[in-house]
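INPUT
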Amino acid sequence: MSDVLDSYPQWLDGAWVTVRLTLLGGALALVLALIFGMAGTSRFPGVRVLNRVYVEFFRGNATLVLLFWFFYALPLIGLRFSTTFAAVLALGLNVGAYGAEVVRGSINAVPKAQFEATVALNFTPYQRMRRVLLPQALALMLPPFGNLVIELMKGTAIVSLVGLVDLTRVSKNIQGSTGETVAAFSVVLVLYFIVAQILQLFVRYAERRVDRMLGRRLPSEPSLGTIAAGAPGAGVSS
Amino acid sequence: MPPTDTTPENPAPKDSEGGATPADAAAGKDVATEKGVSTQKGGTPEDEPAAELPHGEAPGIRFEKVVKRFGSNVVLRELDFTVAPGERVTLIGPSGSGKTTILRLLMTLETLDEGLIWIGDETLWHMDRGGKRVPANQKHLHEMRKQVGMVFQQFNLFPNMNVLRNLTEGPVRVLGVPKDEAVERAKGLLDLVGLADKENAHPTQLSGGQQQRVAIARSLAMQPRVLLLDEVTSALDPELVVGVQDLLRDIARQSDLTMLCVTHEMTFAKDISNRVLMFDQGQIVEEGPPDQIFGEPSEQRTRDFLQAVLAS
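OUTPUT
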């Protein structure tokens, strides 16, 4: 076990690669999700088609196959990316497709009455989206976004197959060099879990901010602890 | 050929117009005296709210053979009616009779199937291009909507903004009013609706009656010339209804807005309107001054409806 832990610089480097890919891929996915998600709510059929094509294509393909495309196939026709960039593209495009559906669904779930109020106040279509619909849809997007960012973080493990030394790769390397299979894979298990929990913390924080913006009172709500403890009706505010 | 509001082309509305004329005149006189009063003692605190209310050329409204269908269900059948500038008209009738649809068409929340809707001397859903009348584009609708404000049954305040932002967002972003001025006006309107202390509150912290009063202030902040009230007290607890109604009565008295009001509150309708239109199945069954419609309706359908409403 101590051999495994002594190689902590490797673990840290690997964790950093995983985190960096998660953040960059997540940023790309978020931008794509917002753009194509909003396109999916357009009143112009032509714009909605863009959403469908993007979502169906990138949701319907294995991230690993996308990665092979960006890494092995596209260079053959002259498009050469760095390994990291290819990985970010593959992950971002794939998760962005899921995210686009989340954004589209959330915007559509904002009560129609809110849209009607923006018409009555003569907002332009951009103002309706930017000032009213998107801020309210954000509250609905955040929990599924939390899922997606953790999915994406775990999905970064595939980059070990194109030569990037991420957490997964490091665990394999250390298992090979020390022979301590159980210890090496236990450590990587815990590290992924920790990274996921940190991401989840950020999402929770964002949820809190949005709840406050929407005037949902937090102090009167039971803490996560009471709900987790299974107190009957703990989630029901009086 | 833009018709003026006082001379309808159709014989049918002309008859009805006859009944409404005295009321119109009375309304006009009210407005005139009100204006006189507010200029005379414009500095006194009681009159300050009146200064927040829109004054000036309110347009009339005219429906010309308006048809609205939802699928195979015809909600409005070749409907004709006219509302004079500054007139207050209440629409009553059983649910499904098309009265809310009329307001929603005027607010462009529903699209028009056939016919013409005039606001002032311009058509709402059509515009002029090369001498031809073509369906309106977004720009035309945006221009036309500037004259119209609407208050909804469910208030529809924006939960992602506090009360003050609800009132300033439209004027600042849509009308381009400077922020300071918009805040100033918003505070004046909140004062008018009796919620001056709630500007930083969140809509969810307000009672239904308070939310509706904010919603009324919000629609007035856009300085409309026509105000549409869609069952504005139906979603309120009984003890909150009076406050909102009193406010609207004051607004009606102190402004010269053209008002269209859908309501089931007959006393309120009597107080606020110059004329009452009774709808059934997308057509006007009967119309006249409130005293006549509520006191001695001539149509059996109206009598049945009023009886049913009073019994409830």
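end of record. The radius of gyration of chain A is 21 Å.
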